[in-house]
Amino acid sequence: MSHDLERCEQDRSTQTQPEHWAGYSELEVHDLLSSLVHEKAAIFAYHADSDCFRMLKGELRADAPGVSFAQLTSFELVDRLCSGYIARMGWKRVSEFLSQEHIALCMEHGVRQSISVPLDADGCDRDWMKLTLFPSSLSQQKAFLMVELMDRRERLYPIFEFFIRNTSACAYVIELETGWFFQLMGDEKTYGGLSQEGGDYWQETLRYIERCVPEAERQVALRRMNLEHILHKLQENPEYSFVMNELGEDGETRAMQVTYRALDMERGFVLLRRKDVTDARLKEQMLEQAQHESVTDPLTQVNNRRGSESKIQEALLNPEGSRESALVLLDLDSFKDVNDRFGHPEGDRVLQEAARRLQGCLRSEDFVGRLGGDEFIVFLQNIAGLDNLHVVLERVIRALRIDCGNESERAVVTASVGVALCGDKTYEELYREADRALYQAKTTKDGYSIYGEIA
Known about the structure:
Blueprint: H1 2-13, H2 26-36, E1 41-47, E2 52-58, E3 71-73, H3 74-84, H4 91-97, H5 100-109, E4 113-118, E5 128-135, E6 142-150, H6 156-164, E7 170-175, E8 180-185, E9 199-200, H7 201-212, H8 218-225, H9 227-236, E10 239-247, E11 253-264, E12 269-276, H10 278-294, H11 305-316, H12 319-322, E13 326-332, H13 335-342, H14 344-361, E14 367-372, E15 375-380, H15 386-399, E16 402-405, E17 410-413, E18 415-421, H16 427-444, E19 448-450
Parallel strand pairs: 18-19
Antiparallel strand pairs: 1-2, 1-6, 2-3, 4-5, 5-6, 7-8, 7-12, 8-9, 10-11, 11-12, 13-15, 13-18, 14-15, 16-17
Helix pairs in contact: 7-8, 13-14, 14-15
């Protein structure tokens, strides 16, 4: 121990140090190490030039009488740890972690690294071993290794670390057999009455719901957070997640994503993660709103030209479904007279009514769009023959007889319709054919016309 301290003091003396460091003694350094090392841990100093680990503080049980951890090469230390402590599944990880190559890389970059592996040691009351490498800040040839044997709570950290990091603000653990519940990490105070030792999951959850969940949503929260319901969900999927509203101390409502994760069901542990997604949800809603507005006609709330073209072209990519489909163009006859005689508010009402009636007389797989002015576009999918098409078109013509006017004068708006059958045609080809059929229908005043049936 004293030789390591002397070398450390020599390294320190070669660099400029603040004056207040000068008074630190070897005894005080011993005290610092003691404060870092509990009864189930040890600290080693490593020297790259000799590939030597020297124990500075702590104790580890040797695997045989007369065997010591006092001073070992990296290979010998790995052998002692694996043969005396670590379960076979962790041997390879420990061997790679304490290899000369990995330690040199760690020292070169000055980055602290750690791994956790399961134990398989008779007479040991701990379940996991955590190994942490600390590069020296004074020399790239030196490092420190802390070996920790972890208790019941600490052993959960390596299991949950991957799932928690950067995914939640706070994490809790539920032990299924006993209902034991404690905060694993994070500093939120949602479960305000939860002590450091933990408490009963359901009792703590009931208090949380009463205090933090809006009254109108409490029954849903009770069902979602019920342990039996959670276990049922986890049997279907390893993760069960939902978003719920929560009242903050400031009275503001926040959106919280609550996630239950089945990580070690054999031993009966479930991880509960909580994350405030209010800002993310608001951004998502704004993005969805912007996307909706970019393809939606604001007056009628059906697809606009851009949205209609995109949907139809997407439908045409399915050759089997599109072959028996039809593109329909229609406009309202003498619509300009409606605006001139009754005003634009009445004209807007007629357009809204036309869109509503079109949606009402078509199937859910068909869709409606407004191209602009009084022009609408409809895509009929899988019409199954011309006879069915004629039935649909007659229904559309009847639906678009719309009464309009004011108290002193009334009028009826009608529609003209042009149709093109899809086959193997492109959107542009269909549009041209439907437009020609629409012109024919308006000229002959027949109501509708199908391209190809024009005399």
